[in-house]
Design goal:
Elements (H helix, E strand, L loop, with lengths): L2 H12 L5 H26 L2 H8 L13 H16 L5 H4 L12 H37 L3 H6 L1
Helix pairs in contact: 2-6, 3-4, 4-6
C-alpha cells in the first residue's frame, strides 16, 4: 500500500461512529433549511416597506384595473395585514372606495380567505420547523464531538 492509501484507511477507521440522533439532526437541518429560507424570505416580502419599495421602483408596470401608485400603496397593506392577523373576512369585506363601492367583490373575498389559510398554515409550519431546527443546532452544538458533527 502507498502512504496515501494507508493514511486514508487509518483516518476512516479512526473516525468516531455517528450516533443515529446526530445523523437525524444533521439530515433534518439539511432538508429543512431551503424551506425555512424560502418562507422567511416570503414573510419579509409581506411588509409595507417592501410594497413601498416595489411600487416606487422605476419602471414598475401600471395597474391593469387603473389603480394609481397612491391607490396601491393605500389599499395593498390591508390585504397583507389581513393575511397575517386573526381577523375574519369582514376586515376586507368592510373596506370601500371613497365613492362607497366595496373594495373587494364576493369572489375576491373567497380567494383572500383561501390565501389566508395557506399563508397562516405555511407560517405555522415554518415556526415549528424553525423551533426544531434551533433544537437540532443546539443539540449538535452541545454534543461532545460538536466539531465533527457540524463539519460532516
Amino acid at each position: 500500500m502507498t502512504e496515501t492509501t494507508t493514511f486514508y484507511i487509518q483516518s476512516k477507521q479512526s473516525r468516531p461512529a455517528v450516533r443515529p440522533v446526530v445523523w437525524v439532526a444533521r439530515l433534518y437541518l439539511t432538508l429543512v433549511f431551503p424551506l425555512l429560507l424560502t418562507l422567511i424570505a416570503a414573510r419579509l416580502l409581506m411588509t409595507p416597506a417592501f410594497l413601498a419599495f416595489e411600487y416606487n421602483r422605476p419602471g414598475f408596470p401600471a395597474d391593469f384595473y387603473g389603480f394609481t401608485r397612491e391607490d396601491r400603496l393605500n389599499y395593498a397593506p390591508y390585504a397583507i395585514e389581513y393575511m397575517l392577523n386573526g381577523a375574519d373576512i369582514s376586515y376586507l369585506g368592510d373596506l370601500t372606495f371613497p365613492n362607497g363601492a366595496p373594495l373587494y367583490n364576493a369572489r375576491e373575498l373567497i380567494h383572500m380567505v383561501d390565501v389566508k389559510v395557506v399563508t397562516q398554515l405555511a407560517f405555522g409550519v415554518v415556526f415549528v420547523a424553525g423551533l426544531i431546527a434551533v433544537g437540532a443546532i443546539t443539540y449538535l452544538g452541545r454534543s461532545t464531538a460538536r466539531r465533527a458533527h457540524l463539519r460532516r
